[in-house]
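chain below, 326 aa
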Amino acid sequence: MRFLLDQAQSEFGRTLDRMLGAADTPGAVRAWARGEHAPGRALWGRLAEAGVTALAVPEAYEGVGPLPVELAVACVELGRHAVPGPWAETAAAAVLLTASPAAGDWLPRIASGQAMVTVAMADGGPYALDADAADAVLAVRGEELWLAPGHGPVRTSLDPARRLAPPLPGGEPLARGAAVAAAAARAADWAAFATAAQSLGAGLALLDRTVAYVKQRTQFGRAIGSFQAVQHQLADVLIGLEFARPLLHGAAVALAAGGPGAGAEVAAAKVAAGDAAYAAARTALQLHGAIGYTDEYDLSLWIRKARALRGAWGSPSVCRARVLAS
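prediction:
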C-alpha cells in the first residue's frame, strides 16, 4: 500500500514550513529552556491561527478533526523547526477530554489556541511536559481524570527545552469510570503518534543540515561530502527516515479508522521514526565534529530534541514489545 499526501495536505505542510522558516525558532527554543515562554507562546498563537491546534479537536467542539494525517504533517514541520511546547500533549488532552463533561469548556479553547494543555498519565511517565508554561495540567489516576491544582519542581530533561514537572495531587475531578481509561489509551496513542512525527521532522532537519555542512567542510583539499564513507553514512540516514515515513502515514490511517490495531501501528511508527532521528543525530554529531557539541551552534538544539523524543511516550523497547505482541 502506498501512502501519499493529497495536494491540500502537502500545501499545508509547505505553508507551515515557510511560516516557521521565517520565525526565529532557535531563539524561541533557547528562551523556552530558560523558562521564558513569550516567544514560544507567540509561535503557538501563529500556528493556532493556521489551524494546527484544532486538528485533534472534534468539529462538535469547534475543531476540524480528528485529522491524524494532517496532524502528522503539522508535527513533522514542528520537529523540522524544533518548535518548543507540549504539542503532542495538547493533542492527547483533546482526545482525553472527549470522555469528560468538561469537554465543552476546554476543547474550544484548545482548538482556538487559547489553552495550552499538558497531561500526565501512566504511558507518558509521572511528569507533565512544560507544566510551567501550560494553562492546565491534566492527570489520569487509574480511571479518574483530574485537573491538577498546579505542578511540582521543574526538571530539565536531555533536551533543556523539554521541561518536566509532576502534577500536584488533588485538584478538580473531571471524569471517572471505564470511559476515562479507554480515552487515556487512545490519548497515549495520539501522543506517541505526534511524537513520532516530530522525530521524523527533527531527523529530516538534521540530515539537511549535515548534507549542507559536508559540502562546505574540506579535508585534504576536498569537501568531505565527496568521501564515499561519508556518503554511505548519510545514505543510511536517508533510508531510515524514508522507511519511517510510510509507517507514520499508516499509523495515521489506522488512528483515523479507530480500529483495535491502531496502537501497534503507532508503536511501529514511533520505533522507526525515533530510531531514524537518533541515527540522524548521531551522524550529524560525528560529521560536524566538535561544533556539534556546543550550545552556541543551532545544531545542538535538533540533536538534543531527536534524542529526547526517542524516549518520550514509549521507549523503543516498550514500543517494540507492543508491536511484537500485536
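The chain has a mean pLDDT of 94. DSSP finds eleven helices and nine strands in the chain.
thats it, cya
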